[in-house]
Amino acid sequence: MRALVTGWPSFLHGEATAGDVLAMEAVRRALVGAGIGCDVAWSPVFRPGGLDLGRADPARYSHLVFACGPLHGAQVEELHRRYARCRRVAVGVSVIDPDDPAVTGFDAVLPRDAPGTAARHDLAALPEAERVPVAGVVLAPGQREYGARRRHDRIEAELTDWLTGRACARLPLDTRLDPRDWRLFSTAAELESALRRLDVVVTTRLHGLVLALKNGVPALAVDPVAGGAKVAAQARAWSWPAVVTTGEHDAPPLLDPAELDRWWRWCLAPGGAGRTPARPPSAGLLTDLLAALRA
Questions:
Q1: Is 200 within 8 Å of 136 (Cβ atoms)?
Q2: Longest pairwise C-alpha distance within the chain
Q3: Which three-class secondary structure string do you get for 199-239?
Q4: Is the pLDDT of residue 82 over 80?
């Protein structure tokens, strides 16, 4: 007996959601735990280099298991044709139309929900997932006032490309406030409440740096202006070392991944320097303001 575990993340033109992937992993673990050999098929878009349906030889498998998602559509029906000699079982799925050929093609259907049946717990609730750092990402757009020194677009492209390789939960944040847009914060208090729950902030914005440090969250700051500008200056004001600047050169790459890696590890080191509270800001500018008003 050998099973091929499939789901919507297996299809080239499918979709990989966290729930689908976790459900497929729950099935894989259950089969392995029962001593049943199995492979998992992934879309080559989602998992390049993994086993895809085009290379999963039907003759190798006695069973095909389809986990999670709705049972409908031509891609599910194609599984019945390609793996016709296998016993095909769907588990943890939603059945919308029991007479759909995508449904009737299975030898057994064990739904999470279907007409006339009691709902059952979704399989995604079973596997324990590893904990990874939560990284807020605060990026600065435009800032055309810096003219030819602007490196924003290229810095953002290189920085976000580097970020995709980090094992972390990336949370895009915007310091713009707008009570009309549910995707943005309405007040500064809302933004700061979100920041306090992060493990690290990666930012090219001055206020991404300031508000992270204000709330005791380490920040990996990248100044998007050649030679450094207000982000680097603010890091100096806070005596914060985790800031990356670029020279005046224009040749790619602008950022050194090794340097970013080093500061990333420093910011996230348990009990390390990255968790040491930054020097609190003084009221110097406000004192100077009052003096200027009284002059």
A1: yes
A2: 91
A3: CEEEECCHHHHHHHHHCCCCEEEECCECCCCHHHHHHHHCC
A4: yes
